[in-house]
Amino acid sequence: MPQRSTGVRRTLGSLFGAILAVAAPTVAAAQTIAPETITVCASTAFRPVLYRDGGNLVGYDVDFLRRFAASRNMALVFRDFPFDGIWLRPGRDECDLAAAGITDFPSRHSAGVEWSRPYFTVLRTLLIRRQEAGALRTIADFPGRTIGFVTNSSADRDVRARAPGGAFLKGYADAEVGIADLMAGRLDAFADGSVTSDDFVGRHPELAVIDAHSLVPAEGLAYPLRIASRLREDLDRFIAANVATYGR
């Protein structure tokens, strides 16, 4: 009897183990550019998403991705690049993912790159000098005036689609430079996303936000990833579980 009981237990244990193996979700091992390290192509064009403070790279994306890397027991390293075209770099094997407050537009899709689910939703806005808030309410009020934006950004696309005839447009590599021109009177407005505009107004109360509106469909920031790195599924799960904590 004891021998038969032991055999039954072994058989049941084997069957139970097999069931667990089938039922358990499989997680593909990451094949990142550097072993046990997530390499990020980063642009500091949009504070507070990413920016430098005393030489240190900080911001909402930095904090969020550090937590993701820690959840996988992986290191995180950043490489600085201009914003324009940064979403192409993972497909060129320059990094495992790009971070810069990037919107997933179909026109930005490229070979070797896949996109995460959105992790933050933004509105399109115009920043102006507060003293002009009575005269300037929407983009329709800008014939003969100059609007700035980061080149090839969502703001660039939105302004070009909506600006009235006679408006002048000026592209920048970095929002901070555009805001400096706005405060110096060399621009009449700077177009940006709400997350960045709110930060600028908080630091420069002489500025005001106008013309806040949503794109259709709503604009969600996402991460372009190198397909070969095999990180997207894990990152999507992390975003789903932690999206409410982004920027906090």
From TrEMBL:
<feature type="signal peptide">
    <location>
        <begin position="1"/>
        <end position="29"/>
    </location>
</feature>
<feature type="domain" description="Solute-binding protein family 3/N-terminal">
    <location>
        <begin position="37"/>
        <end position="248"/>
    </location>
</feature>
<dbReference type="InterPro" id="IPR001638">
    <property type="entry name" value="Solute-binding_3/MltF_N"/>
</dbReference>
<protein>
    <submittedName>
        <fullName>ABC-type amino acid transport substrate-binding protein</fullName>
    </submittedName>
</protein>
<dbReference type="Pfam" id="PF00497">
    <property type="entry name" value="SBP_bac_3"/>
</dbReference>
<keyword id="KW-0732">Signal</keyword>
<dbReference type="InterPro" id="IPR010916">
    <property type="entry name" value="TonB_box_CS"/>
</dbReference>
